Fold this sequence. Notes:
By secondary structure, the protein is of the alpha+beta class. Helices cover 39% and strands 13% of the residues. The chain folds into two domains: 37-90; 92-229, no CATH class. The chain has helices at 12-22, 44-60, 65-72, 76-84, 98-106, 110-120, 151-158, 196-204, 219-229; strands at 136-145, 170-171, 174-175, 181-186, 189-191, 209-217.
Amino acid sequence: MKYEHAGDVIPEELLKEVQKYAAGRLLYFPAGDEKKAWGESNGYREQLQKRNLMIRNKYAHGVTIAEIANEYYLSLDTVKKIIYSKKNDRHLTYAPTVESAVRYMDAGMIEEWIQCYLLLTRKTLTGLVESGKQEQLYFGVVKFPLRLIEQNEMRDLSDNQPGSTGTAHEEDGNTVASPPLVIQYTEGKFHCPVQQEILAALKQRKVNAYPAVIGMNGSDDYRRFMKYYGTVLHYVNEVEG
């Protein structure tokens, strides 16, 4: 590295101040990016944090270490280190509840919550999760008016109403430990591909609005959604018991 005279680089007044503290010393001035922790500049560290969180969530809900190692192409020892590490990067614990989904949303990880929910409850969301076809975009958790769901789906629920054992615990707008709805928005229409039991229970209780995550395939649907609904649907900030 070529040396330069400090007077040719630093303003005179600033040079005089530096000389008060380090006259005659050889100083190294780090670039601004060097102040960042390893991996922060390119987002790699954040991706590792998200991956490790997903690994811990899956293990906590019954996925074996061998299955995780195969999925992420990691050694068994590496998976064990991630699982048993005392360092918790984000202090998030997955649960199939609105409260858990809101916490993930606040951390910018609502997609990770959905992945956990669909995997760990063994649900398949046809049309919304189409890996490799289009970018998956998500909006929520928001208070979603159930009347916006396609009417034919709601009529089908009327023909097969569940009894009092429905899985949605919603009374007068207060959400207890239940998952949010996962709603698909496609070509201007809302669908509820899974969670039919929850939706039927909400209809039976005549609930008007319920927390939901809105998923879209690609930017066209996302722009259409934001144009008509982006400013009228309100985020769920607190979960009341």
